[in-house]
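Regression check, manganese (II) ion case 495:
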Amino acid sequence: MEYEPTIGLEIHIELNTESKMFCACANESSQTEPNKNICPVCCGHPGTLPVINEDAVKKLIKAALALNCEIARDTFFERKNYFYPDLPKGYQISQYQTPLSKNGYLDLPDSGKRIRIERVHLEEDAGRLAHPEAADYSLVDLNRAGVPLMELVTYPDIHSAREAVEFVKELQMILRYLGVSGANMEKGEMRCEVNISLAEKNASKLGAKVEIKNLNSLKTVERSIEFETKRQSELLSKGESVAQETRGWHDKKEITFSQRDKESAHDYRYFPEPDLPPLKIDEGFLARVKAEIPELPAQKRERFAKEYHLAEKETELYVSQRGLGDYFEKAASELANWVAEKYQSGLAPAEFQKLIKLASNYISTDLQALLRERGIEDFNEAKFKITPENFAEFLSMIYLGEISSKIAKMLLPEMFEKGGDPSQVVAEKGWQMVSDSTEIEKAAQAVIAANPKAVEDYKKGKTASLQFLVGQVMAQTKGKAKPEIVRDLLEKTLQ
Ligand code: ZN
Ligand code: MN
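Current build output:
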């Protein structure tokens, strides 16, 4: 029997505001000194009053709009009551009945499949507990208590680990484009919970729902879904039933384990937060937030396909690495100018297209390799020594045959290290192509004399031997001779 998983995601995202959700304490995820950013409000002292952080509301609405959600105009906060040592108030200020936004969707970039979003609401984060090894106590750090959190819940529209990962990745990208969160899972800026149930394909009733908590990387999202799909399939095939429960993920063993069954499910006794006024969103505020939304990944993919006609993989590189994409576009506009100037009749589309392909080729292979070698993960144009102008000139030199691809492979790392105008670097290094035919002739004669066997083979009709001889001459001239000229010359000489 084949069972299909039905998956819904619940994702918590820390918003990167300056201050916390309800007090003026700094919101610093990088703070390592425990209990540095705390005050009576986020420590839950009696008699203190929370104040809503406008920037957190704005950032959440920005994200919700980008996810095609409806925005509530009249909403309020509620208390979600539970006890835990990292929660000093004994409740979390959250939203239950009136989420700030609902009914959105995200289209997966690969398949185009639409995943509906049920709700996106605003709440506060809890603190953190540390359990020092071999100690008989635990430590409480409240730096994170009160940090603004966006909670997003999808409908169970996902049916594989791959789709779940694709959803999380695309969401991450959107949040980064909007600048509302670093959305780094490993840093805890984004935390994922998976609801998964198995049933026979097209069954009218879903199976028991299992919740997997605290997944802190894309890999664990993927692995935990794969593990649960297998575990539940095996139970169902044996005629056993799946328990409705909450399970944790064991990172080292790569398995899920039972944490809490349905009987002990929480009742949070939500009620409206009496210390905060209702939150009303007016049209002016909404319009201002809307105006700040930049071009999003999906729009960028579409525009790149129309304007540049690159391979999908290359487009995706520029969409996922925004800085690199901007750099590519600056180089492209330099190339467009160059083509327009060179071909007076205006932009020659075919020439432009060839240059764009060349540009993208060098960026996605050679340049990426140079960045990787130096351990640079995020391309930063400000720290990058090759200006788009110089890069465009470098490409035009290759295009015009002013440098061979062999020289280009030496020139690019040189520019990468020291910057500079490529034609100047070429002149300084003596890398100009050899146009002086006597120099090439001399090299050709030497190669012919040194390789009688290849010469003989060629004369007998083995054309591959000519290619070998061309290569030898190229090597002698250190890549500075044009291969076409070398070939012509050898052909004439050996006739
Ligand atoms: Zn505080
Ligand atoms: Mn929550």
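Comparison notes: The domain at 437-494 is CATH 1.10.10.410 (Arc Repressor Mutant, subunit A). The chain has three domains: 3-291, 297-429, 437-494. No diff flagged against the previous build.
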